[in-house]
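Incident log, structure service

09:12 report received: a user says their structure output differs between two submissions of the same chain.
09:20 pulled the input from the user's history:
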Amino acid sequence: MLFESCLIATTLAFANPADPSGKTMYPSGNNDCDKIIFSAPPISAYPLLTIGSPVNLEDGTVIEIGNYSIKPSIDETQIFIIQGHKTICECQVIENTIVSDFAAKPTAKISRIENNLILTYRIENILKRAIVPVTKGY
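09:34 re-ran on a clean worker, output below:
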């Protein structure tokens, strides 16, 4: 009886794939399934802007409810509202400020001030405000 229990304990100790000694019955290294690298699309440098109600622009077009990207122009005098690769609106920058705190990722928001819509764009420690060209009385 003692011999049988010692034999069973010894057999189970070597058959256990995760024994306390750190030795396993399975080979270490990468399996074929570990070699598959799942890649996500690259993170956009342009922040996402969500518009919750339609915006009527001066030129007669309408920015519909949805998600848009914000992209500054090369000379940084304008900010573009884009959807996909299509420019929806060009906004003139009215304020360019350097702030003391650093933003980890670019942000954008739109707010109403009196009868104007102001687009606020922040990247790193630069804050830009642009006016959205909406129709009068919006």
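09:41 both user submissions now match this output. Likely a transient worker issue. Closing.
09:42 reviewer note: The longest helix spans residues 2-15. Residues 2-35 form one domain.
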